[in-house]
Structure formats: C-alpha cells, structure tokens
Amino acid sequence: MNLVEALAERLAADPAGRVMRSPRIAGLPVARPPEQVQRSSSRYAFTTIDSRGRLGDRSLVHLLNWPPGTSLKPTLLDDQVIVLGRSPGTATVTKLGHVRLPAAIRHRCQLRAGDGLLLTTSTACGLLVVCTASVLDEALAVFVRGESS
After folding, report:
1. Taking a C-beta distance cutoff of 8 angstroms, is the pair 68, 61 a contact?
2. By the number of CB atoms within 10 A of the CB, which of 1, 64, 90, 141 ranks highest?
C-alpha cells in the first residue's frame, strides 16, 4: 500500500481524524499574539539526478561554500541515504557547481536519471544529505501510521 492509499484508508476510517475545522466565533475575532516558532537551521531542496550523476539543484552546494573541484566523500546509510562531507573522496563538485555522485553510489542506491531526491543540510554541520524517494515514502508512511515519537 502506498502513501496515498494509506491516507485515503485512514481518512475513510476516521474522517474527523487530524482534520482541523474552523471554530464558530461569536462576535468579532480577537487577534492573538504570535506563538514563538523555533526556526530550523536545516535547509532543504528537492531535485532530480541526471544520467551522469549530477544533482540538478545547486543552492545547498552554494550555501555550504563548496566551490567547483571540491572533493566530497560519500557515505551510505542503508543504501538509501547518501551523506556527503568535504573530504578526499569519490564525489566532486563540477565546474558549474553541481554535485556529481559516482556511478558505484548511483547503482547501489538504484538511482536512475530523472529520479527525485530530497537534499538537506545544516551549515553548522557542513554535510549534504541526499535522501531517495523510498526513504521519503517510508518516513511519511511511518508518520501516517502514527509511529513517530
């Protein structure tokens, strides 16, 4: 069962579930002070990969201040998450500023041209994390099932 089917099933079973409804307000609405929202230091981008292993989005590479020619060391987590750190390794930043993943990594993660990937970074860590669609599907499925902490 995919995510959309799981959501549809959950809504059919409990239509009032997590759906927020507008409260009825008697009289004029009163403005409330905004709640303190803690901002995340993480930055995200969604991109695709091409047939040569280049990630389309360059915004996070620029944010990390990785100039062309920077050598990156890829580390695999469960064959679905790639962590890139600035260190002598097998991945590089191209002349145009794209991260290029080596063929061995792409094959191991079963990545094909056009596949969507979620990129995330925190400048404090100096890492670029690449999540495949299957990792995103699983994370959302866990959330829908209510298994998140």
Report:
1. no
2. 64
Cα 118-110-141 angle, rounded to 5 deg? 50
| Digit-coded pLDDT (tens) for 58-115 | 999 999 999 999 999 999 988 788 888 989 999 999 999 999 999 999 999 999 999 9
CB-side neighbour CA atoms (13 Å) of 76: 14
With residues binned 3-state (H G I as helix, E B as strand, rest as coil), the percentages for the chain, rounded to 5, are: 25, 30, 50
Residue 118: burial class (beta carbons within 10 Å; 0-12, 13-18, 19+): middle
The structural domains of the chain, with segments of one domain joined by +, span: 44-138
C-alpha closest to that of 82 among 37, 40, 115, 59: 115
**How far apart, in whole angstroms, are the C-alpha atoms of residue 85 and residue 125?**
9
- pLDDT at position 145 is 80
The percentage of residues in the chain with a pLDDT greater than 90, rounded to a whole number, is: 45
Measure the CA–CA gap between 27 and 66, rounded to whole angstroms.
56
Where is pLDDT greater, at 43 or 21? 43
